[in-house]
Write a structure and sequence with these properties.
Elements (H helix, E strand, L loop, with lengths): L5 E4 L7 H12 L4 E4 L4 E6 L3 H11 L8 E3 L10 E2 L4 H9 L4 E7 L13 E5 L4 H10 L3 E2 L14 H8 L5 E4 L10 E4 L6 E4 L5 H7 L14 H6 L3 H5 L6 E5 L2 H17 L4 E5 L12 E5 L6 H16 L5 E5 L11 H11 L4 E3 L5 H11 L1
Parallel strand pairs: 1-9, 2-9, 4-7, 6-10, 12-15, 12-16, 13-14, 13-15
Antiparallel strand pairs: 2-3, 3-8, 4-8, 5-6, 6-7, 10-11
The structure holds adenosine monophosphate and magnesium ion.
């Protein structure tokens, strides 16, 4: 499928109503519009039109088993997409909407099953970005919108990221500048008792607990250590062969620094080029290495790290390196609430490849995994 992709520039604070109207008509006609939200860019289609929704899955090459989030102009429209809405939704909406919180509710009869990958639930959010809000208001439709990237690529936080992945596959792309939060929304399932946190994201979990005292927060994703990855020979690496393999380093600062120096030298001797994603403060420590350094932002500023995380992942992936090493963010820095979301995205970017830098055997494991790749 190819289509002529139209790029429309908009003022992120005061989008031109005439430009918004063109995109609203495009959505009403069952076509695809990529637009900025405060989290990441979304790939939107009319959520009430099964054929339009199917175009989202096709354009992204997203498995039809992965459900979409439906975006609304305001909480007043919840009845159009959901039924049996529990009373706590009104308190959550008043506190968090518009904003980066997604609620999973019972799906209403007008929402076609493919939006929710066949489930009888529907995920709903009211975005805060003025462009998203203007578009949702102008078309007066619930809009299904996953992140506007190709499946398994980092989420897009600029219009250029959207074009890099989806040019020729989407009808309109808005350019409203870089997104501000940069990480996807927090997802909570209210159809389960007690409610469950399905994805950490831009919303403050402490504030959520105040309204949902029984919220169940599953433990962080199971950390696969290097020996386990090695035990499944190359399977994870092979599956993601088109992308540079990325390894998440766990351990104290001093061990990590020693490990990175040793790993870059050893990889260099094997003819492999390394990219390193590190806090800005650590640049000087690696200046003498044959490695590509990309800064994640100031070490203790999680809002900045979160805002640029996906852009930095795309950047390091574009440098032609063979291996990417990244330091996680410390739990001690979680004050702003984004720590769990950042760790979650890094863990997924690593596809579970986590290396314990305090274990002397880890360097050999890394060399074995990268020579298999
Ligand atoms: P994306 O919009 O690409 O950031 O992904 C949407 C996220 O919301 C995914 O993690 C989905 O699994 C989740 N999600 C969407 N709809 C549902 C649903 N009905 N039930 C559970 N999770 C959902
Ligand atoms: Mg996504």
């Amino acid at each position: 499928m190819t289509t002529a992709t139209q790029l429309l520039h908009v003022d992120p604070h005061q989008p031109d109503p005439a430009v918004i109207a063109v995109a609203a008509q495009t959505l009403a006609a069952g076509l695809l519009v990529a637009f900025p939200t405060e989290t990441v860019y979304g790939l939107g289609a009319n959520a009430l039109d099964a054929a339009a929704v199917a175009r989202i899955f096709a354009a992204k090459q997203r498995p039809t088993t992965d459900p979409l989030i439906v975006h609304l102009a305001s909480a007043d429209q919840l009845d159009r997409v959901a039924i049996d809405i529990p009373p706590v939704v009104h308190a959550l909406a008043a506190r968090f909407w518009p904003g980066p919180l997604t609620l999973v509710l019972r799906r209403g009869p007008d929402v076609p099953p493919n939006v929710s990958a066949g489930r009888d639930t529907v995920a709903v959010r009211v975005p805060a970005h003025p462009v998203a809000h203007a578009l949702l208001t102008a078309c007066n439709l619930p809009i299904a919108a996953p992140s506007a990237n190709l499946f398994s690529r980092p989420s897009p936080t600029t219009a250029q990221h959207v074009l890099d992945d989806l040019a020729g596959r989407v009808d309109i792309v808005f350019d409203g500048g870089p997104t501000t939060i940069g990480l996807e929304s927090t997802v909570i399932d209210l159809t389960q008792t007690p409610p469950v946190l399905l994805r950490p994201g831009g919303a403050d979990v402490t504030a959520l607990h105040a309204l949902l005292p029984d919220l169940r927060v599953p433990a962080a994703p199971l950390i696969t250590d290097a020996t386990e990855v090695a035990a499944a020979p190359g399977s994870l690496l092979k599956h993601y062969a088109p992308h540079t393999p990325l390894f998440l380093l766990r351990g104290d600062d001093a061990s990590a620094m020693r490990f990175i120096h040793a790993a870059v030298r050893a990889l260099h001797e094997c003819g492999q080029r390394t990219g390193i994603l590190i806090p800005d403060e650590e640049f000087a420590a690696y200046a003498d290495l044959h490695a590509e350094l990309v800064g994640l932002g100031p070490a203790h500023d999680l809002a900045t790290i979160g805002r640029y995380l996906f852009a930095r992942l795309r950047e390091v992936d574009s440098l032609g390196v063979d291996v990417i090493l990244v330091r996680g963010v410390a739990e001690a820095d979680d004050g702003g609430g984004l720590g769990p979301a950042i760790r979650d995205r890094l863990f997924r970017a690593a596809e579970g490849r986590v290396l314990d830098v305090t274990d002397p055997a880890t360097l050999q494991t890394l060399l074995r995994l990268t020579s298999d790749a």
